[in-house]
Design goal:
InterPro entries: NCS2. It holds the Pfam family Xan_ur_permease. It comes from Arabidopsis suecica (Swedish thale-cress). This is Xanthine/uracil/vitamin C permease. By secondary structure, this protein is mostly helical. It is about 50% helix and about 5% strand. The protein is built from 29 helices and eight strands. It has helices at about 30-35, 80-85, 90-95, 165-170, 185-200, 200-215, 220-245, 260-265, 275-300, 305-310, 315-325, 335, 340-355, 370, 375-390, 410-425, 430-435, 450-480, 485-505, 520-525, 530-545, 550-555, 560-580, 590-610, 640-650, 655-670, 675, 685-690, 690-700; strands spanning about 45, 50-55, 65, 75, 125, 130-135, 250-255, 515. The strands form four sheets. It has a two-stranded antiparallel sheet. A two-stranded antiparallel sheet has the order 3-4. Strands 5-6 form a two-stranded antiparallel sheet. A hairpin with a 5-residue loop joins strand 5 (about 125) and strand 6 (about 130-135). It is globular. The chain starts with about 30 loop residues before the first helix and ends in an 18-residue tail after the last helix. About 40% of the residues are buried. Mean pLDDT is about 75; it is low at about 25-35, about 35-45, about 50-95 and about 110-170.
Length: about 725
């Protein structure tokens, strides 16, 4: 009998015998230090349903952070469908050993006794660089009974957090002070409503301060248009929170409409007009184009076609499209700030300091510097400019800033006219000339003029405005609602935005009225998701619009300060667009290339169209910051039809149009998984029936929804 045979009277052990612990082979530098290279596909992504999608890695803890809301909120671990089917509880799972894999032992050698034994568990582990290893012995232990662990190695588990856990839906809104359907007291509603609209002051009033001077309007015209914007924004916000998406989203003059408006304003046929006739004529042309383009958007939403377009619109499409809107105005921003650097640069520095360096300072649990960065910096800079003006810093002997430059004879005064015009705060008479009470009424500028080529441009722009709104609906719903809206709710909201933009065209706001992209940032910062707050603020906005002095006061903001604030607003608009990539795998090489190509060509292709045919010595009658918008007169697209030339040259010179075309084509033709693309996950009708909270979030008030039950694509 060999020495290896068992002794008489002893029970044989399992076969094969457990090997003795051996020294661990030397590891590479990466394994020793736990270094984990972050290549394409290894980044953590939040999927479009608002839940954290993880790569195939193990969780070292039982709780996981939710990155969507910007805070680390703990989530319960996912429950597998098999565990639910078997009726396992959390206690059973803790007592149950981890899942194991079995190995089939080889047959015993001749002469030995084969004893049936339990399968030896072998635990799979993954190295930080993706190499899978094993640990020997029962329960993954080495010969001494201690578990074998190497630095940087964690266990392999499931990929995606579940999408139907009620606890997760409840925890989603824990970071908000008030949820979508909460109704705070009258005092909190008033305070938070004022806070909400003050934080978005720049988005509401800056667009008319740009387009009205470009149309040749006077200070009184600027005041009247600002009052009209406040009135229409209040009315359309009330309509949207009641009969649209029902999310707490402020409606107003979006930057998406600014570039096409400037292109229409600088059309060659308007160059011969001057004075007040120029302003009214161009405004009527804009009204006609906005009405037709908005009617097209309303048909797009209420007909259900938007539900089909939603299949093509994903975060990889939304991100570069919205980012291109902000990047397209680089020629307007700092060139106008340079007209008075001592005022403009101070304005930019203040808003940066408040929004970034002082953002964590709280007063009464409110981050006042972050929330009120725009109005605070505007007030301080405006006050400083007023003191400098009164102190005579911008006063030159024998020079009157109110005299037109063309009438100035003295070369000394002509040298300082630009400085006096842009640095002084008393050159605008909008406040003194504005009436105390004025009611904005439809067709106040005259009957709209309908021109098919300008209307076609606005129809294309309305599609991009819809894409912008879709991204805002999804992002805001993850913050304030129980679930994202259904496709029907999205179509209904887009249809209503088209209708409200028709109202904006009738009232003569100069642009369409759509969901402001800055809503998402404001909701995340203020932690206020109640629609009642937004509705009360909209009512206050309507009341302010009836006070002519309010519009006159806002219209008297110096143009340099407007340009300085726009530098910040457009930069934030660009960043908000790119933030949509958090719903996809931002580190994926596929997405990186698509977004990079879309952004690059959105800048390069319009530059070709805008510079084509311009002589270096040409003496253009428009300022340099308006030259990118006169492409219709010299673009490379030339055919025998002037209207077609106008449409093609104008559309292809817009950055957002090129970015949208590139992103849509590439994202929907280049293969990629849904998780990698971050495909938006919208709720369905079955979920609305199963979960009353979803129906209460999005159903129409006053039982209006019963009229839409027969049309499934505009309801829940």
């Amino acid at each position: 009998m060999s020495s290896s045979d068992p002794k008489p009277g002893t029970k044989p052990g399992p076969w094969p015998p457990a090997p003795e612990s051996a020294a661990m082979p030397p590891s590479s530098w990466a394994k020793k230090t736990g270094f984990r290279p972050k290549f394409s596909g290894e980044t953590t992504a939040t999927d479009s349903s608002g839940q954290l999608s993880l790569p195939v890695r193990a969780r070292q803890q039982e709780t996981q952070p939710d990155l969507e809301a910007g805070q680390a909120r703990l989530r319960p671990p996912p429950v597998s469908s098999s565990a639910v089917a078997n009726g396992e509880t959390d206690k059973d799972k803790k007592e149950k050993p981890p899942p194991t894999t079995t190995t089939t032992p080889p047959p015993p050698p001749p002469g030995s006794v084969a004893v049936p034994v339990k399968d030896q568990p072998v635990k799979r582990r993954r190295d930080s660089d993706g190499v899978t290893g094993r640990s020997n012995g029962p329960d993954g232990a080495n010969g001494s009974g201690d578990p074998v662990r190497r630095p940087g190695r964690i266990e392999e588990t499931v990929e995606v957090l579940p999408q139907s856990m009620d606890d997760d839906l409840v925890a989603r809104n824990l970071h908000m002070k008030y949820g979508l359907r909460d109704t705070p007291g009258l005092v909190p509603i008033g305070f938070y409503g004022l806070q909400h609209y003050l934080s978005m002051l720049g988005s509401l009033i800056l667009v008319p301060l740009v387009i009205v001077p470009a149309m040749g309007g006077s200070h009184e015209d600027i005041a009247n248009v600002v009052s009209t914007v406040l009135f229409v924004s209040g009315i359309t916000t009330l309509l949207h929170t009641s009969f649209g998406s029902r999310l707490p989203l402020i409606q107003g003059p979006s930057f998406v409409f600014l570039a096409p408006a400037l292109a229409i304003i600088n059309s060659p046929e308007f160059q011969g007009l001057n004075g007040n006739n120029n302003f009214k004529h161009i405004m009527r042309e804009l009204q006609g184009a906005i009405i037709i383009g908005s009617a097209f958007q309303a048909v797009l939403g209420y007909s259900g076609l938007m539900s089909l377009i939603l299949r093509l619109v994903n975060p990889v499409v939304v991100a570069p499209t919205i980012a291109a809107v902000g990047l397209s105005f680089y020629s307007y921003g700092f060139p106008l700030v340079g007209k008075c650097l001592e005022i403009g640069v101070v304005q930019i520095l203040l808003v940066i300091i408040f929004a970034l360096y002082l953002r964590k300072i709280s007063v009464l649990s409110h981050r006042i510097f972050l929330i009120y960065a725009v109005p605070l910096s505007l007030a301080i800079t405006w006050a400083a400019a007023f003191l400098l003006t009164e102190a005579g810093a911008f006063t030159y002997k024998g020079c009157d800033p109110n005299v037109p430059v063309s009438n100035v004879v003295s070369s000394h005064c002509r040298k300082y006219m630009t400085r006096m015009k842009y640095c002084r705060v008393d050159t605008s008479h909008a406040l003194s000339s504005a009436p105390w009470f004025r009611f904005p009424y439809p067709l106040q500028w005259g009957v709209p003029i309908f021109n098919w080529k300008m209307a076609f441009v606005m129809c294309v722009v309305s599609i991009i405005a819809s894409v912008d709104s879709v991204g805002s609906y999804h992002a805001s719903s993850l913050l304030v609602a129980s679930r994202p809206p259904t496709r029907g709710v999205v179509s209904r909201a887009i249809g209503l935005e088209g209708f409200t933009s028709v109202l904006a065209g009738l009232w003569g706001m100069g642009t369409g009225s759509t969901t402001l992209t800055e809503n998402v940032h404001t909701i995340a910062v203020t932690k206020m998701g109640s629609r009642r707050v937004v509705e009360l603020g909209a009512c206050v906005l309507v009341i302010f619009s009836l006070l002519g002095k309010v519009g006159g006061f806002l219209a008297s903001i110096p143009q340099v300060m407007v340009a300085s604030l726009l530098c910040f607003m457009w930069a934030m608009f660009t960043a908000l667009g790119l933030s949509n990539l958090r719903y996809s795998e931002a580190g994926s090489s596929r997405n990186i290339i698509i977004v990079g190509l879309s952004l690059f060509f959105s800048l390069s292709v319009p530059a070709y169209f805008q510079q084509y045919g311009i002589s270096p010595n040409s003496n253009l009658s428009v300022p340099s910051y308006y030259q990118p918008y006169i492409v219709s007169s010299h673009g490379p697209f030339k055919s025998q039809y002037k209207g077609v030339n106008y449409v093609m040259n104008t559309l292809l010179s817009m950055n957002m149009v090129i970015a949208f075309i590139m992103a849509v084509i590439l994202d929907n033709t280049v293969p990629g998984s849904k998780q990698e693309r971050g495909v938006y996950v919208w709720s369905d009708s079955e979920t609305a029936t199963r979960e009353p909270a979803l129906a209460k979030d999005y159903e129409l008030p006053f039982r209006v929804g019963r009229f839409f039950r027969w049309v499934k694509w505009v309801g829940i």
